[in-house]
Design a protein that fits this description.
single chain, alpha+beta, Rubrerythrin, domain 2, 3-stranded antiparallel beta sheet
Length: 268
């Protein structure tokens, strides 16, 4: 599916003109079609991805993100429904809609190739006589246009699945993940771009999956109280305070008492 099909029409008109400049702009319109199709699909996964990923503009990045969320996002999907009859039988099926998936292979075969036609030939190309005839360029562009039109034929954008939800223990923001995109021991980031929290997936096949924050542990050397901090907070020079005895510690290549460090510095 492609919400804005105006670029397909522009590409067709430019392809029909067939001159060098028109074919170059045709390639640009076709690349725009591919980008828009990827963004349309990404819009269905906004609740499942860190917001920083919405800044990604390259189609290959978008496809990788979609596959991370849902391993089946690059597959075609047809949805139909039927009335359940007595005895477990079903009535006639009615088509609800269809969705077309965009694969890595499509991006590699078409999007990257189109970029070649947007630039002037290099001196090496000219010297080697490797400037492609317009007729060959036109054939390539037509082949890409045909593929884009097939992908644009989908009648819906879909994101089906069994979802796991959890609340980030750091920023309290609700998170949502498609279970098909998860695996035992996999780490996922909080969707809040300002939150450094990561979570590990456990017991995925159980009725209730466990999503636990990734934490680094440390023990107060004075009262032996255990504490946890985020891995990204383990920075040399960072100060930590024991919640029980209130002694401050400073992260170095080993954990040292702030009081001891300051006393040693005062003696010097």
């Amino acid at each position: 599916m492609l919400k804005d099909k105006s670029h397909i029409l522009k590409a067709k008109n430019l392809l029909a003109a067939g001159d060098n400049d028109s074919l170059r702009y045709c390639a640009l319109e076709l690349r725009t079609c591919i980008e828009l199709m990827c963004y349309d699909r990404l819009s269905m996964y906004i609740d499942e991805i860190p917001k920083e990923f919405l800044k990604k503009w390259r189609p290959q990045d978008v496809v990788n993100i979609l596959l991370e969320c849902d391993p089946y996002s690059d597959k075609d999907c047809t949805v139909s429904f039927a009335k359940e009859l007595s005895g477990g039988a079903t009535g006639p099926r009615q088509m609800f809609g269809s969705s077309k998936g965009i694969s890595k292979k499509f991006i590699q075969s078409h999007y990257h190739k189109l970029a070649h036609y947007l630039h002037a030939p290099t001196l090496a190309d000219i010297k080697a006589g490797e400037i492609r005839p317009l007729a060959d360029v036109k054939i390539d562009l037509q082949a890409t246009l045909n593929e884009i039109e097939i992908l644009a034929q989908g009648t819906m954008l879909a994101n089906f699945g069994e979802f796991v939800t959890f609340t980030c223990q750091i920023c309290q923001l609700p998170n949502k993940r498609n279970k098909a995109g998860l695996s035992e021991g996999k780490k996922v980031k909080c969707i809040n771009p300002n939150c450094p929290a990561e979570f590990t997936i456990h017991d995925l096949e159980e009725k209730i999956s466990q999503i636990k924050p990734v934490r680094a542990g440390w023990s107060c050397l004075k009262c032996q109280t255990n504490h946890f901090i985020l891995p990204k907070e383990v920075i040399v020079g960072k100060r930590l305070c024991c919640s029980k005895c209130k002694v401050e510690w400073k992260i170095g290549y080993s954990l040292k008492s702030v009081e001891g460090i300051e006393n040693n510095e005062a003696k010097k």
